[in-house]
């Protein structure tokens, strides 16, 4: 489902950015952006490629890579590196106020809200540094893996 307001705002941000950087406003870049606006969870390049192909639209993986670099640079998406997995992206508007719990065993990512911690982090000031944003990753073992480990240990 495309949220129209979100898409319009994202397109405006991209247009400004491309203009400022003197880059071409190619239809592929906007098609990729539209798809990104439909993604509600984290996704990697492969998932985005599959989603775009699923719509019957063809763009190369390298165009997707390059466009995601631009979208990251202009602040529409954020790039995450969770352990050894391929880079994951998510829209900045979807990322505020949650942290990521990452299972070190199966790689599953759970998002949790922690408003107290977020407001604490937002209140922090660091000398000689102007902070833009923060990401919080908590590594550990998920409930499913804990259960599986117990079962296997009990054999
Ligand atoms: Zn997230
Ligand atoms: Zn797990």
From TrEMBL:
Pfam families: FUR (PF01475). InterPro entries: FUR (IPR002481), Fur_C (IPR043135), WH-like_DNA-bd_sf (IPR036388), WH_DNA-bd_sf (IPR036390). It is found in: Cytoplasm. Keywords: Cytoplasm, DNA-binding, Metal-binding, Repressor, Transcription, Transcription regulation, Zinc. GO terms for cellular component: cytosol. Its cofactor is Zn(2+). GO terms for molecular function: DNA-binding transcription factor activity; transcription cis-regulatory region binding; zinc ion binding. GO terms for biological process: negative regulation of DNA-templated transcription; regulation of secondary metabolite biosynthetic process. SUPFAM superfamilies: Winged helix' DNA-binding domain. Binds 1 zinc ion per subunit. Zn(2+) binds at residues 103, 106, 142, 145. Homodimer. Belongs to the Fur family. This is Ferric uptake regulation protein.
């Amino acid at each position: 489902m495309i949220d129209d307001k979100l898409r319009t705002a994202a397109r405006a941000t991209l247009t400004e950015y491309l203009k400022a950087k003197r880059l071409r406003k190619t239809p592929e870049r906007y098609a990729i952006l539209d798809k990104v606006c439909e993604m509600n969870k984290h996704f990697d390049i492969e998932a985005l490629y599959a989603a775009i192909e699923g719509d019957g639209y063809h763009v190369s993986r390298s165009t997707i890579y390059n466009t995601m670099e631009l979208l990251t640079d202009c602040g529409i998406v954020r790039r995450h590196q969770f352990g050894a997995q391929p880079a994951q992206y998510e829209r900045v508007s979807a990322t505020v106020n949650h942290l990521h719990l990452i299972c070190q065993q199966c790689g599953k990512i759970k998002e949790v809200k922690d408003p107290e911690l977020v407001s604490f982090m937002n209140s922090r000031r660091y000398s000689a540094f102007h902070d833009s944003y923060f990401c919080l990753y908590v590594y550990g073992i998920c409930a499913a893996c804990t259960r599986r480990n117990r079962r296997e240990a009990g054999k």
